[in-house]
Design goal:
This is F-box domain-containing protein. The chain is α+β, with helices and mostly antiparallel strands. The protein is built from eight helices and eight strands, in the order αββααααααββαββββ. The chain has two domains: 124 residues; 127 residues, Nuclear Transport Factor 2, Chain: A (Roll), CATH 3.10.450.
């Protein structure tokens, strides 16, 4: 991954160097100071001085026009390279690097804020299942919202590992319609019943050791005020996974859990007791 990031950064720097070279104006030649003739008059002659000044003004104007045209050509070339080459190079950068790149210059800012670059990064970091989705605020905003929900979901499982009932109580929305289905299959409805179920789960004897598990295949979908995540939770990597669905609601500027459902996929002849933590 470090190699890909380095290659992407090198490509971006190369493009920036091309832009700088093409945009550099040519140096103007200094007057020689000799008594040469311009327009048939010597420098010392008053008419000649007027004619030479007029001629120099025309030359300076043409040089400015030429320099401006070269800058336009360099800028237009850079803009043509951005969607074809730079976007591909940016796909190798991670989320913080892409954000920092957008603060370098105007050309890189346009490239780093391009929707295609953020869509490619979303597919790389999350999933390609939502390729047909058109986020109303663009892929950059959708990436940030998805990242926030995934981080929140990670916090949920950290609370379980730490067996922190106060943190779990703050994590759930205090509403009558929240629901929790543990792997045992029992349904708990309403805020008080849900928190009581977690209190029972945290007090469950597990040999004095904290519960250890792995979360894989995380898939998130985020709307304006609702989000849901599906995943697989492995308590024992050699056994089958728990299939988990978590639903969150955005209320008063904050995301809260409103539904947790875990179901164990038992193998043939496997009648073991499911883990109530998941």
């Amino acid at each position: 991954m470090d190699l890909f990031v380095a290659a992407g950064a090198t490509a971006v720097c190369f493009l920036a160097a091309i832009f700088a070279l093409r945009s550099r104006p040519e140096k103007k030649s200094k007057p020689c100071g000799c008594a040469c003739s311009c327009g048939g008059a010597e420098v010392g002659d008053a008419g000649g001085r007027v004619s030479m000044a007029r001629s120099n003004g025309e030359v300076a104007g043409k040089e400015k026009e030429t320099a401006g045209a070269e800058r336009q050509v360099g800028g237009s070339m850079m803009e043509q390279l951005v969607p074809e080459i730079t976007t591909h190079a940016l796909s190798y950068l991670d989320y913080p690097s892409l954000c920092r790149l957008s603060m370098t210059n105007s050309s890189m800012r346009r490239a780093a804020n391009d929707d295609n670059a953020w869509k490619a990064l979303y597919h790389k970091d999350f999933t390609v299942e939502q390729d047909s989705v058109t986020p109303p605020n663009g892929w950059k905003s959708y990436y940030a919202a998805t990242k926030a929900i995934v981080n929140l979901n990670t916090e949920f499982y950290n609370i379980i590992r730490e067996r922190s009932l106060p943190a779990m109580s703050r994590f759930w929305l205090q509403a009558d319609y929240v629901k929790c289905v543990h792997a045992s299959g029992e349904l708990f409805s309403g805020y008080n019943a849900v928190i009581d179920s977690w209190s029972l789960a945290f007090n469950w004897d597990h040999g004095g050791q904290g519960i250890a598990f792995q979360i894989r295949d995380v898939r998130a979908r985020v709307l304006s005020d609702m989000a849901w995540i599906t995943m697989k939770a492995y308590v024992d990597i050699d056994s089958g996974p728990f299939h988990v669905t978590n639903i969150y609601e955005f209320r008063n500027g904050q995301w809260y859990m409103v539904h947790h459902h875990s179901s164990v996929m038992l193998g043939e002849g496997d009648l073991g007791q499911p883990n109530v933590f998941i």
